[in-house]
Amino acid sequence: MALLSRIIDIPLFLEIGENCLENLTLILSSNSLSFRKAVVLFDRTTYQIAGKRIYYLLGRMKTCIDRICVEECTIEFTEIVRERIRESGCDVVFGVGGGKVLDTGKYAAALERISFISVPTCPSNDGIASPVAVIEKNGRKKSLGAKMPLGIIADLGIIKASPLRNIRAGIGDLISNLSAVEDWKLASRKRAEKFDNFAALLSVNASEALLNIGGPNILDFNFLRKLVEGLVMGGVAMGIAGSSRPCSGAEHKFSHGLDAILAGPTLHGEQVAIGTIVTTYLRGGDYKKIVSFLKVTGVPVNSRQLGVPEEKMVEALVYAPKTRPERFTILEDIKIDEKMARDALIKTGVI
């Protein structure tokens, strides 16, 4: 009998801990990594937070370094980064920051076929480790295929100091996995879509590990570790599945709907958190447990807290199926309309 297996692409190393960035030299050497030249990406804030320190630590390793301040997360700026990579002959990109910096670095590195190391300064979404980059193209955000990071260094001391709103957004993004996997199961049953039990298990367990922490203090190092670990596991789950299915379903379509109709969308994690409440209700699931956890952790649970007019919430939920028509979810299954959307939003207390 033939022995069958599959190769799964996961990061070579994962370091999560207080002040672990100071161990950069040891982390690289213990994984037999050395680089000719590195590009360090940051924004105006994250250079002071961690970019400057990485620049110093890499310099001590005699690594040549190029620095780029990421002004925007667009296709055009990604091309600027790619050109700098080619001109300087770099063989690794360090992304130091939040989603904008990490997605730009991850995508540029993937296209140039060089390594990418993720150094998140806030835990606002699962882009920390996912093989997906959200890049603006022609004025619209697009989810583009990238490559999982070679490694991840998440310094909890730095992450604890990040804005509370960003931490709460990360909580919302991680909890949304519960909704996403239910949609994946639905698509498997009704559309014969391929379902991966390993990826689904990783994704759901990552969410439940956070959900089941009693009386959480979101600035506690144990909580932050669970949050970062969960976001990383979500990224790995996407890598195993070969798509964003383990972490993106109807709740993300709702968020994409808000992105499309609002002049200034709110944070992604905040939007998908509310999307998770509504879509869990539409499936007949225990949405109250999710609402309770989100309230305790300070994540927005209604339109007022999100800062979005009630009618825009209804409009976004009705528009949501158009954002990714190829992805079957509960919204397509029930053929969501304005009355259903309004009723669901009212009954869950979102509006």
**What does the average pLDDT come to?**
94
The number of distinct β-strands equals: 8
Helical element count? 16
Number of domains: 2
Structural class: alpha/beta
Using only CA atoms, what is the Rg?
A: 20 Å
> Span between N and C termini?
58 Å
CATH fold type of the largest domain? Dehydroquinate synthase-like, alpha domain
Proportion of residues in β-strands: 5-15%
* H/E element order: EHEHEHEHEEEEHHHHHHHHHHHH
Highest CATH level, the class of the largest domain: Mainly Alpha
Q: Helical amount among residues, as a percent range?
A: 40-55%
Q: What low-confidence regions span 5 or more consecutive residues with pLDDT below 50?
A: none
The main sheet comes to: 6 strands, parallel
Overall outline: globular
Oligomer: single chain
Largest beta sheet: what is the strand line-up? 1-8-5-4-2-3
CATH H-level superfamily of the largest domain: Dehydroquinate synthase-like - alpha domain
The appropriate CATH architecture of the largest domain is Up-down Bundle
